[in-house]
């Protein structure tokens, strides 16, 4: 299999003596439920990288999302380290590899940017911050993902926020874009409320703006953003496994990322649940790639 080109044509490493501000890596598989198949989601990282290639020659051009060139007139300071090896249904091994890579990036020190994969890969990603807390988690998603167990698995795609709530280094959780119906029952809603999770529905963001979410993040906090692609409206992100009308717009999400960079500090970012087999004309992969560009640009502009 031919390796995909790196995101935006970024280097795999910087010249000696130069430390990256951010490191991109992919993880195709996390903790797949029994009898489930995560191979479609494992195509996401390559699809996102491919969608970024048209902009690879434009890194010094003005980006109107960011108010300047991606790297703000400075040398390239982000690398794409490629994918870590994962195997469908090797759940324990996959979690260990994702956590280890996250710890490795944080030790650089750099901001890890993870390209999933289904929504189970954030669990070991969050775990990798154990020695770098406290962190807050900003989840952008249609679903709260608070199941304790599903199909005998406690680390799958319905479980990440429940598992995050149990991690001592996680100081708080803000969940944004919630809508429609998913795996959550009354018991999961009550568990999230007992923990103190701030649930902000998509309708609240549409009515009140992004401050409906950002006001719950303490100023100066270190924040890990986990973005499930179904958090965005399917009109711009159709390539997901669970489409739900009424999601966030592209502009709302990039404004939230930029606002977070001003209010707090992005310590990590993952994007999950892109499902290329359901994409339409590559629009979802393109949207995902642009979201990552905005994350990189925000990290570059952080003090």
Q: Would you mind describing this structure in some detail?
A:
- By secondary structure, this protein is of the alpha/beta class.
- It has helices at 44-51, 91-106, 122-127, 160-165, 186-195, 202-208, 211-214, 250-263, 283-301, and strands at 22-26, 78-83, 111-115, 135-140, 170-178, 198-201, 222-228, 265-272.
- The chain has an 8-stranded parallel beta sheet with strand order 2-1-3-8-7-4-5-6, sandwiched between helices.
- β4 (135-140), α4 (160-165) and β5 (170-178) form a beta-alpha-beta unit.
- α1 crosses α9.
- The longest helix has 19 residues, at 283-301.
- The radius of gyration is 18 Å and the shape is globular.
- The mean pLDDT is 96.
Sum up the structure in keywords.
Arginase, Chain A; alpha/beta; 303 residues; globular; eight-stranded parallel sheet
Q: Give the integer mean of the pLDDT values.
A: 96
| Count of alpha and pi helical runs | 9
Number of domains: 1
In what order do the strands lie side by side in the largest sheet? 2-1-3-8-7-4-5-6
**N-to-C order of helices and strands:** EHEHEHEHEHEHHEHEH
CATH fold type: Arginase, Chain A
SS-based structural class? Answer: alpha/beta
Number of strands: 8
The CATH architecture? 3-Layer(aba) Sandwich
Which sheet architecture does the biggest sheet show? Answer: 8 strands, parallel
Please mark out the parts with pLDDT under 50 across 5 or more consecutive residues, or reply none. none
Strand content: 15-25%
Portion of residues within helices: 25-40%
Which superfamily, in CATH terms, is the homologous superfamily? Ureohydrolase domain
């Amino acid at each position: 299999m031919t390796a995909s080109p790196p995101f935006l044509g970024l280097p795999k490493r910087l010249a000696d003596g130069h430390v990256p501000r951010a490191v991109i890596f992919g993880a195709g598989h996390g903790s797949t439920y029994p009898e489930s198949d995560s191979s479609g989601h494992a195509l996401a990282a390559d699809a996102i990288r491919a969608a970024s290639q048209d902009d690879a020659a434009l890194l010094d051009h003005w980006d109107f999302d960011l108010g300047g060139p991606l790297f703000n007139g400075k040398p390239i300071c982000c690398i794409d380290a490629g994918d870590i090896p994962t195997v469908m249904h090797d759940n324990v091994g996959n979690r260990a590899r994702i956590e280890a890579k996250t710890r490795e990036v944080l030790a650089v020190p750099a901001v890890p940017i993870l390209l999933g994969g289904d929504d189970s890969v954030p669990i070991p990603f969050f775990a990798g911050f154990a020695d770098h807390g406290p962190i807050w988690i900003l989840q952008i998603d249609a679903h709260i993902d608070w199941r304790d167990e599903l199909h005998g698995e406690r680390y799958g795609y319905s479980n990440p926020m429940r598992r995050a709530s149990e991690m001592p280094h996680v100081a708080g959780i803000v969940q944004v874009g919630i809508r429609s119906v998913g795996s959550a029952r009354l018991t999961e809603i009550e568990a999230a409320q007992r923990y103190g999770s701030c649930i902000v529905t998509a309708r609240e963001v549409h009515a009140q703006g992004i401050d409906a979410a950002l006001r719950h993040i303490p100023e100066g906090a270190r924040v890990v953003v986990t973005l499930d692609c179904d958090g965005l409206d399917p009109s711009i992100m159709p390539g997901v496994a669970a489409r739900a009308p009424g999601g966030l717009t592209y502009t709302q999400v990039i404004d939230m990322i930029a606002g977070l960079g001003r209010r707090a500090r992005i310590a990590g970012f993952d994007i999950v649940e892109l499902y290329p087999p359901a994409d339409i004309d590559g629009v979802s992969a393109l949207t995902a790639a642009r979201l990552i560009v905005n994350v990189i640009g925000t990290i570059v502009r952080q003090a």
